[in-house]
Amino acid sequence: MPDMSPITSLAFSMRSKPGAYAMLLGSGISSAAGIPTGWGVVIELIKKLAAAEGHDCGDRPEEWYKSAFGSPPSYSELLEKLFKTETDRQQYLKRLFEPTPEEREQGKKLPTNAHHVIAELMEKGLVKVVVTTNFDRLLEQALASRGVPHVVIDSPSKAKGMMPLRFERSCIIKVHGDYLDPQILNIEKELGSFDPATLNLIKQVFDDYGVVVCGWSATYDTALREAINGTVDRRFSWYWTRRDPLEKAAQSVVDDRKASLIDIESADKFFADLMSRIHGLEEFDRPHPLDVAAAVGAAKRYVGDNSKRVQLYDLYHDALTDALTNWFDRPPQEPVILSPQTMCDRIKAYDASAETIVSLTATVGRWTSGEFDSFLLDAVSESVRNEPYHFDTPHQSWEPVCEYPARLLYYTTGMVSLLTNRPSLFSELMLTPTPSERNLDSVAAVRFRFALNPYPAMFSPLFGGVGKAVPLSTWMYTKLREPFRSLVRSDEHYELLFDTFEFYHAILYRALHPSNLAGMPSGKWCVVQQDREAMIQSLEHQRLRYGGRAFVQECMKNMGKTWNLEFLLEGIQNICAQMNF
């Protein structure tokens, strides 16, 4: 039987033990960005040295140097001889890391695919710590683009003052410093030892974590090799990637740590392959349709038996707890620059983890007679994620995305109340508390009033990249179809049910805020003219299929409002006339 690919083993290990693995990255990780490796710096310096002395070093600069100076070229020796002070060395290296306008246009000296995959691994919590010998900031830029909070330890003083590593969500340890710091470590005598605080920190990483090594030759970093060899614990495996045969120094570390070797073409391809396998495992871990069906089947058995009330509660409670754990671990905690793709990826992740709880909400709401309503309403409140607005970002904040899971349960519960003709549940849903830092008295009818996408490009990847205003609830309409399929078999009736919920939400919102037409709830119901006309007729004449005039009037009564329906409809029709899709 052939051996299992070590990349597959690594993917399984990372998924089964989130946060147990660290990365050790060297200059090879950034070479694809156009940032030279240590040897690349050596070749450039030799060429410049030869030119300065009036010589042509030809195609083999290292041979010219050996002939001219009697010994092979050394990165440390060249830097020390050509630049006499730390500041001189730092100023020379600075231009190697910062892109010129022309380089930026060409995509050079910017985060590579490898950097972005590592950032995603850290965002997912699969990798917690990165130890790097690099001076550049490409990984920090990749983390910032995904909104991943992180700390950077690039000096002994920061190593001394940092929080214990277990309390940091994501940490980058730059053992040689940052290129903007004149005290970066470059030459051999600087690389021979670490400050005690830095040494203790990196030894802790090598003791406590499994390590994935990429782009590090181990040749020049004497102190780092000694730190690795000085650790004795091997709680988790080590993996070492290589493009070429290992030098003696690297092989000694591999032997000492009993590391698994992974042959790669490039860092970009290796990390893309690793992430592809992790995504495959994530897809496998999604709630399987049979698992959802089993949960729904159990709920149906319990609702018909009063003696099973506790089991029904436990089933629903456990599904909600699992969903909340997934939902609340995802949003970032600080201002970030967002992108349509990252926002839409998060929406899809929420959908995947919501399948069971949404299906249970639809089932329990449909087959109970009100005795379980308080649990459904509590689920909506508990699912609200309060994220602060960040007005310094292109899309304001993560809040429209963070509210999405609660909105799924909000729509599901509201549609069930119409399906079962329970205005009491509908009105209680409208007044369900959803407090936020900005409004402690916020209720669901107000909190979830905006289903229209105010930024045409924000959720465009969900709709095939269509760059126009599309109600986000159009996406929810498609995602909620399956949980309601056994309850509403006809697609036509399902669409009417969905649109009626949004339409009545708009009416009752206006009953709560009769003068605020600008804040009128909008969504898919504004688009489907045929359904809108049918719903208006249902309020003027007779109940068609869902809701009706008596239903809405009972809801208003329960909410303590006595507005005339015609007055409310007039404002809503004016808003619809202004919608531009």
What does this structure look like?
It comes from Sorlinia euscelidii. It holds the Pfam family SIR2_2. InterPro entries: DHS-like_NAD/FAD-binding_dom. This is SIR2-like domain-containing protein. There is one protein chain. The protein has 581 residues and is mainly alpha-helical. The chain contains 26 helices and 7 strands. It has helices at 6-16, 38-52, 61-69, 75-82, 86-97, 101-105, 113-123, 138-146, 156-161, 196-208, 222-229, 248-257, 267-285, 289-303, 309-328, 340-367, 373-382, 399-402, 404-419, 423-430, 444-447, 473-479, 491-512, 529-540, 549-558, 565-578; strands spanning 21-25, 127-132, 151-153, 171-174, 210-214, 238-242, 260-263. It has a 7-stranded parallel β-sheet, sandwiched between helices. Helix 7 packs across helix 8, helix 17 packs antiparallel against helix 19 (404-419) and helix 23 packs across helix 26. The protein is elongated and about 100 Å long. The protein starts with 5 loop residues before the first helix and ends with a helix. The relative contact order is 0.07. Residues 330-336 and 388-396 have low confidence and may be disordered.
What is the β-strand count?
Answer: 7
Mean pLDDT: 80
Radius of gyration: 30 Å
Major beta-sheet overview: 7 strands, parallel
Helical content (DSSP H or I, runs of 4+): 40-55%
Strand content: 5-15%
User: Strands of the biggest beta sheet: in what spatial order?
Assistant: 3-4-2-1-5-6-7
Low-confidence stretches: 330-336, 388-396
Total helices: the number is 26
Structural class label: mainly alpha
End-to-end separation: 59 Å
Q: Tell me, what's the shape?
A: elongated
Pfam family, one: SIR2_2
Protein name: SIR2-like domain-containing protein
InterPro entries: DHS-like_NAD/FAD-binding_dom
